[in-house]
């Protein structure tokens, strides 16, 4: 089986995105499992390679067929959309936002056309993108819009911790209103499919409660008994192995021990905070991250999209100390999802 072509966006050019992309491609195992193609501005990658004295050369192309796909060569689908004279590390700008948005849009186009088998996204700055006139809350919403997808969800993965969200980029007040039976069932289905696509075998799913103590029989809110519990009961009738609502303050510790193959969080921070405590390790002595692990997968799309689950880290951009761990994991996850998709299409 031919190795999949993975399109990888540069992220915000003023961020650590270009640095971690190049570092990931210099990892021998990446070329062993896929054919990586960066999407963005070739000048940005030439600059970071020169600045950090990395052992790589850029092959700027405008057609996927012209990629070399060999170690030490960084193939870049060149969009020529960054003025290097105006680019400043760590600064929000419409230019940088526009360039990062263009890279995401292009990699989606390449995937829909079948020119790449999977996509991986580097970190973007939402304010920069909005200043460029693109009013999206994040990558997930961009992908949903340009693929015409209505039923989708964000899945975070780090070892045996898999967390999917009922809602993500909305206010906390709105998130409470979005806790509805049908949406919860939909997300349970997406999570179950994601677990299987990632090659895991534990399909038991834990569903978080929304309120403290999962509402404590209605003492602290009605959503747990009125929306979450009926969703869990219906999901069981559909054949899913699911628990809930489980108080969120105990659910994640159970998940960390492997009790669940995946968990459903009701809103963004409920899932992200415990997840990042698992994958993000700060070295107080060195005053830098030892590791930044975690993969963000958008479930429900007609194409494969994975991403690093960290931000732009403007404060360390261009310094050469950014960890490529999450980018390597995101590429590995994209390859795994691609293999699963090929098997589904060719059951043999």
UniProtKB/TrEMBL annotation:
Q: What Gene3D superfamilies is this protein classified in?
A: Isopropylmalate Dehydrogenase
Cross-referenced SUPFAM superfamilies, in alphabetical order? Answer: Isocitrate/Isopropylmalate dehydrogenase-like
Q: Which GO terms describe its molecular function?
A: 4-hydroxythreonine-4-phosphate dehydrogenase activity
Q: What's its EC?
A: 1.1.1.262
- What keywords sit in the KW lines? Metal-binding, NAD, Oxidoreductase
Name the domain of life this protein comes from: Bacteria
Which major enzyme category is it?
Answer: oxidoreductase
User: In its keyword annotation, does this UniProt entry include NAD?
Assistant: yes
Protein name according to UniProt:
4-hydroxythreonine-4-phosphate dehydrogenase PdxA
- Species per Swiss-Prot/TrEMBL record: Niastella soli
User: What is the organism lineage in this UniProt record?
Assistant: Bacteria, Pseudomonadati, Bacteroidota, Chitinophagia, Chitinophagales
């Amino acid at each position: 089986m031919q190795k999949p072509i993975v399109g990888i966006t540069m992220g915000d050019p003023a961020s650590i995105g270009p640095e971690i992309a190049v570092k990931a491609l210099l990892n021998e195992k990446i070329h062993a499992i896929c054919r990586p193609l960066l999407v963005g501005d070739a000048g940005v990658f030439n600059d970071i390679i020169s600045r950090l004295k990395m052992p790589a050369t850029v092959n700027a192309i405008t057609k996927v067929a012209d990629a070399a796909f060999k170690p030490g060569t960084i193939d870049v689908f060149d969009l020529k959309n960054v003025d290097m004279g105006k680019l400043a590390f760590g600064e929000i700008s419409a230019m940088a936002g526009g360039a990062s948005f263009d890279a995401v849009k292009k990699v989606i186009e390449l995937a829909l056309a079948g020119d790449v088998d999977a996509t991986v996204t580097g970190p973007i700055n939402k304010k920069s993108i909005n200043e460029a006139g693109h009013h999206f809350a994040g990558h997930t919403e961009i992908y949903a819009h340009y693929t015409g997808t209505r039923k989708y969800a964000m899945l975070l993965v780090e070892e045996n911790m898999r967390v999917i969200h009922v809602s993500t980029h909305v206010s906390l007040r709105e998130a409470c209103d979005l806790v509805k039976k049908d949406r919860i069932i939909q997300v349970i289905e997406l999570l179950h499919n994601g677990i299987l696509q990632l090659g895991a075998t534990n399909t038991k799913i834990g569903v978080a409660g929304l309120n403290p103590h999962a509402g404590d029989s209605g003492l602290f809110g009605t959503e747990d008994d009125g929306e979450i519990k009926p969703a869990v009961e219906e999901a069981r009738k559909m054949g899913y192995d699911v628990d809930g609502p489980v108080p969120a303050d105990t659910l994640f510790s159970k998940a960390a021990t492997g009790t669940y193959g995946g968990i459903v969080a009701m809103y963004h921070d409920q899932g992200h905070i415990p997840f990042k405590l698992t994958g993000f390790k700060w070295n107080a002595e060195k005053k830098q991250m030892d590791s930044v692990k975690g993969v963000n997968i958008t479930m429900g799309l007609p194409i494969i999209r994975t991403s690093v689950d960290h931000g732009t880290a403007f404060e360390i951009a261009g310094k050469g100390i950014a960890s490529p761990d999450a980018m390597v994991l995101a590429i590995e996850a994209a390859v795994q999802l691609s293999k699963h998709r090929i098997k589904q299409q060719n059951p043999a």
